[in-house]
Structure formats: C-alpha cells, structure tokens
Amino acid sequence: MYTIVDMSEGERRDADRKERVIHTRVAEDLDEEIKRRAQSLGVSVSNLVRNILQNAIGLVEDIVADGAEAVQAARRAGTSPPTASDPRLLGWQSAVLAVNAVCERCNGLLPRGTRAAIALLSSPAPPRFRCERCVEEEPTDHGPQAPHD
Ligand SMILES: [Zn+2]
Asked: What is the residue range of 87's domain?
C-alpha cells in the first residue's frame, strides 16, 4: 500500500474556488501506473488524478491541462469563459489531438498526437473529448434514444 499526499496545489488557492487535499491509499502498482501515465502525458500526478476524478464525477472542466490555463487566464482578464447553459451535442469530430485529454465516457487517456473525437456543440462550451470506441458505442449524451416520428 502507498499513500498519496498533497493532491492539490496548495500554493495556488483562488479565493472563489477552495481546494481541499484528499488523502487516499492506493496499491503500489496503481501508484506506479499513475506516475507512469502522468509522466508520459507531461502533467503532474496531482493534475492527472484531479482530472480523472472530475471527469468521473462529471465536473467536465479543466480536463485539458493546456485548456485549464486558458480558462484561468480568461478569469484573470475579467471575461468569463463560455458557459452556455445547455449546449446541444451535434456530433463528434475525429481529430488528431494537439493537447492531452481524457475520454469523458471511459476516462481513457487521450495523449497528444493520437486520434480522438471532439464534441461539436450548438453553443460555446468547454471542450469535450471521447475515444473513438466510446463514440461508436454511444454517440449521444443520454444513451440510445427512440427515433422521432
Ligand atoms: Zn472512451
């Protein structure tokens, strides 16, 4: 067993967004796998774990390490990032990623340079990514739906 400590970036506390430190025990091989993936993606273990957790719980923001900085830069500049209340999912665009991302459905890592799907939305919103397999299995937001008449 192994304990990960200091999962938040304590020195970077925004007043409007409190961060807590979560301590958790993980098996040693999981710890090594997390470190290996973080290194291959060029992100910190803390960032990787946070992104996976946010994605698993459905807080789909700051999934992309590169995107997170853009969002924070926008906040600093006083302009709010696009937050359309309910953008409709129009489809999935296959692309070669220029950033590291995480599949929103299966949490699979999507490293920069690999092919993945990016959501096309009806209004501006934070980017959403899926691996191509998840798009094939479930192209909609809410599972297979009955066709309209
Ligand atoms: Zn997936």
From this structure: 2-137
